[in-house]
Please model this.
Amino acid sequence: MHNKSVAELSRDLESGSVSSVELTREFLNRIKTEDAKYNSFITLTEDEAMADAKAADELRAAGKANVWTGVPFAHKDIFCTNGVTTTCGSKMLANFVPPYDATVTANFRAAGAVCLGKTNMDEFAMGSSNESSFFGPVTNPWGLSNGEKRVPGGSSGGSAAALAARLVPAATATDTGGSIRQPAALCGITGLKPTYGRVSRHGMIAFASSLDQGGSMARTAEDNALMLNVMAGFDPKDATSVDRAVPDYTATLNEPLKGLRVGLPKEYFSDQLSPVMEQQVRNAVAEYEKLGATVKEISLPHANLAVAAYYVIAPAEASANLSRFDGVRYGYRCEDPKDLNDLYTRTRAEGFGDEVKRRILVGTFALSAGYFDAYFLKAQKVRRLIQQDFINAFKEVDMLMSPVSPSPAFLQGIEHSDPVTMYLEDIFTIAVNLAGVPAMSVPAGFVDGLPVGLQIIGNYFGEARLLNAAHQFQQVTDWHQTLPQ
Model:
């Protein structure tokens, strides 16, 4: 059962060939026996999951079920869960038990889905390798057969690794600069980052408020559509939530792609991309041409400024958001503080990891009185130029296609001590967050036996078209079905 998709499991539950209790117990047993190799989970909610599974079976017996009733999944440990520890991968929140649910959490709970636990992540979602977690690094299931330990990508690496290892059929995730698409690509699964404002951020612990976006990870585009049907929608509790009608994202999955206009940004097929990676991406694009799409080269002229602008804006917003963690109200507190200043200083020094401290320092500097105009304000102006590049591109084409990452999954430890190199891992994904447009990563082949992802970027609120394109691609390819050895 663990090799089946959400859609398949839902049909099995509907037919009665398996119960939610049986299904939940199987996944929980897999996590308990297999996850020591991956460290993809921080918290396992076994008792709650079994109780929810029993309730789901009762709902199905009463004829009150929907697609998600009784289907197991996992939450990235950035979404608040009432009564269940929510750590955000940090010592600062290692003892934090929220008294409420995030909106995304509440939506899945209302749909009757069964949460198995909370997945590991880079601390406060800051990282591209899932090595900065206070709870230890996550290991990518790909490459383990060779005795290697490779990163799963970050920050949603726990969700991605759990999916690749078939410990869960689906998992929530978040994307601030590529944190859904990059781990999805490195782990050979399908991930969707929706339009900014499409999914509520209420109860999703903030990193950079103008960039963070909740999204989904699953094996297939169809499963991601089923997840977005639950996650999307206006939320009055979130000031950045967009009040716009939500379509049924599964309704248009089977529409043909004839006439689809695809743009290839020339800036993303540069010397920064290895020839073997480029060839895999172009092979995937060729499949779209067979499906009836037309392909043309386009330009995103300010793409080369995206990384620099992002690493001013994101740390600046992080420095403001993380100022709330001071040891006074909740979370970690240092022992025996001498006075208030000592409480603040030691709590933050002991509670935050190196990468979080680095970004707080950079962000505080960029927001300081003498440097605000020179750095933060200028970065915001560059951000507007990047957004306009996408607006102009979508006047010519329906969607863009590109690599997700410059290389396949790299070995643990080789980039962790080099922040600049690590930041460049997001070179093809960051501009999407600065512009706020939706994007996906779809499995598109292998390099040296490791998965490669195809990035598909859509126009604002064009998730249905993206999912349609990804689904049609997965009907003629089987890369998304390949398992790590």
